[in-house]
Design brief:
The protein is an all-alpha fold. It has one domain (about 15-230). It is about 80% helix and about 0% strand.
């Protein structure tokens, strides 16, 4: 019955450990390295120096993002696992209280007390199933579906690298003018923002324009800083 009820639509995965770091990594790589390259270009016309700064920004940023995501998701996972262990111990030590608590949660959602007691009783007969239901109800997580730190780290590293490569690529191919990198970066910023709209409720033009403005402002500010430092000869 439930499979037939769900056959007419499918939901996208909104709890996995790869989507957020991938999107954030690509955006951050594109914006930060575009801004870095613009800042260096504002202070010097030496394309080798500009390219070196872009390569260093890509490597440092990708490694930093990957390390930060790994530690962040690992800590989040460890905290969740600790709370799951607390719930497992409570189910073992106070099964009747936990069953009554589960039944009450069903009643709070509109189920009749008699049916809620029966459902809670049947669920409680299977310890792991009961643990899944309790943790979803009380913590909003499922024990077997915790995000992977490694998946988050690799996703972040790869996506940041791709994003950071785009403003750098023109210089690696021989470009000598920041304008070439700026055009590539601005087009990529708009396209990336528009692409994100496919998994959000925002329109493609709004998401694209927002991302374009964020990157353009960041690059403009750092270019100005680099130009002032370059003129001052520091």
């Amino acid at each position: 019955m439930s499979s037939r009820a769900e056959s007419h639509h499918q939901h996208r995965d909104v709890t996995g450990g790869w989507l957020r770091p991938s999107v954030f990594g690509a955006m951050d790589g594109l914006v930060s390295n575009f801004a870095l390259i613009a800042g260096v270009a504002g202070g010097t016309a030496n394309t080798r120096v500009i390219a070196l700064g872009g390569v260093a920004g890509l490597a440092a940023g990708a490694l930093s993002m990957a390390g930060g995501e790994y530690v962040s998701v690992a800590s989040q996972r460890e905290l969740a696992q600790a709370e799951i262990d607390v719930e497992r111990r409570e189910l073992a030590r106070h099964p009747d209280d936990e069953r009554a608590e589960l039944a009450q949660s069903f009643v709070d959602q509109g189920v009749t007390p008699e049916l809620a007691d029966e459902v809670a009783r049947q669920i409680s007969q299977h310890p792991e199933r009961a643990l899944d239901v309790h943790t979803r109800a009380e913590l909003g997580i499922t024990p077997g579906e915790l995000p992977s730190p490694m998946v988050a780290a690799v996703s972040s590293f790869l996506s940041f690298s791709v994003g950071a490569l785009l403003p750098l690529l023109p210089y690696l191919l021989g470009a000598e003018d920041l304008m070439v990198s700026a055009v590539v970066s601005c087009v990529a910023l708009f396209a990336a923002g528009a692409a994100v709209s496919a998994i959000t409720a925002r329109s493609w033009w709004y998401s694209g324009l927002r991302q374009f403005l964020v990157g353009a402002v960041a690059a403009g500010v750092t270019f100005g800083v680099g130009n002032m430092i370059g003129v001052a000869g520091l």
